[in-house]
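Work Package 3 (structural annotation) set out to generate three-dimensional models for the target panel prioritized at the project kickoff. During this period the team completed the workflow that converts sequence records into C-alpha cells, so that structures can be stored uniformly alongside our sequence database. As a representative example, we reproduce one entry of 413 residues exactly as it appears in the project archive.
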Amino acid sequence: MAARISFSQYRVEAEIERCRAECQWDKIPTLVEQLVSARIHEDDDYGNLLLAEALVEECLQENMALLRSSTPLMDEDQPKLAKAKAHLNGILNRGRLGPKYVNEALLLMAKLHYIQGRYRDAQGMCARAAIDDLTQDEQPLYHLRLLAEAFVIKGLSLDHQAVSAASRVRLSEREEECLSCYLRACDTTLLYLQELDKMVSIPQKGAKMGVSPGLVDFDLGFFQLAALQSAYLSLLQKGHLAQGTHQLRRVLRAVDSRGSQSFRKAAAQKLAEVLLSSVSEDSYWGPLSPPPPAWLHREGAAAPKDALYPSFRPPQRYSMESSFCPQDVVEEAILLLLITESMASGDAVISRAPEHKEAREASLQDATSVYDLLCIGMARRGQYAMLSEVRSGNGRREVESMVGFVCVRCVKL
C-alpha cells in the first residue's frame, strides 16, 4: 500500500511539474483535487500555492493589453487576483511550507505586487527570496521560468521607481543593477525555452503517446517576452547602440526553440533596423566580433555588458564553425530581413473572417515594415528590380545569392 501511495504521489507531482513548465494552468485545479483525495501534502499549503499560481497566470493571460500599457490591476476588478492574494497571504503567514516552496510563494507575490503597481514591494519580495543566490542546476524546469521572471520583475520594478531624489552615482548603480537583471533574465528564458522544447520532444517514461503536445503554438507570456526584450531595448533606449546591437546578435545566436520563433522574428527585424539606421559601412564590425573599443568608450563602457554580468548557466548557442558571416552592414541587414520575411510569410493570416481582423492587420503591418526596410537596404545597392521580384515572391533565391547566404546553421528558415 505504501509503495502504491508513493507511486501515486510521484505521478501526480510529476504531472504538476510538467503543467507548470508548459504553463497549462487550466489543468492545475484538477491536479490539486488529486493531491487532496490522495492526502498528499495535507500538512502544508502546497495545494494553495498551486491554485494561487494558476489564478495569477490566468489573470495575466486575460489582461495582456493592460499589462503592456503598464496599467495596474486592482483587486476589485480582478476576482482571480484577489483570491490568489488571499491564498498567498495565508501561505506566508502560516509558514507551513519548506524553504523551496516559500521562495516560490515569495516570487509569485512579487509578480502580484508588480502587476498591481507596487514596484517597491515587488522588489522587496525578490530580495526576500534572494534570487541572486538561486542556482539553475538540478531544479525542475518550471524553476527556470520562475527565476527568469523574477529577474525581469526585479529589473522592471527598479526602473519604475521614482529616482528624482537619487544622486547621479545612485542612478548609475541602479541602471547597472537593472541591466544585470535583464541580461540574466534573457539568458535564463532562452535556456528555459530550449529545455522546454527538449522535454516536449522526448516522450516521458511511462507517459502515453501524445500527452505532451508540441510547442508549435506556444505563446510567450508577458514576463517571458519582457525577459527576452528588456536588455537590448534598455541599451538602445539609452543610446548604447553598439551594446544593444551586440545583445541582439547574442540573442539570435542562441539555439532556436519553437517557443521563441515569434520573438526571434521581431529581434531580427529590430537588429536590421538598427544596422540600417545607425551603423555606417565604415564603422561596421562583424557579428562574431565584440563592439569596437571606440564605440564602447563613447557609451561609457570598457567591455560589453554580458562580459561584466555573465550568466551562471548560459543558453546553448550555435557553433560558428564553417558558417557564413556577413562582410558589411547592408549584407547583414538584408540577410536578417530575408529571414524575417520568410517567417512573416509563414505566419501570415489571410482569412477574411471578421474574428481574424486584428491578426490579419498585424500580419499586414509585419510584412509592410519588413519590405520598407528591404527597400532601404536594396536601394543602397541599386537592386530595385530584385526588390520588386522579392515582393512578388519570385526572386528570394536570387537575393539570397546576392548577400552570400550559403549557410543556414545559424538560423532556421
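The chain has 18 helices and no strands.
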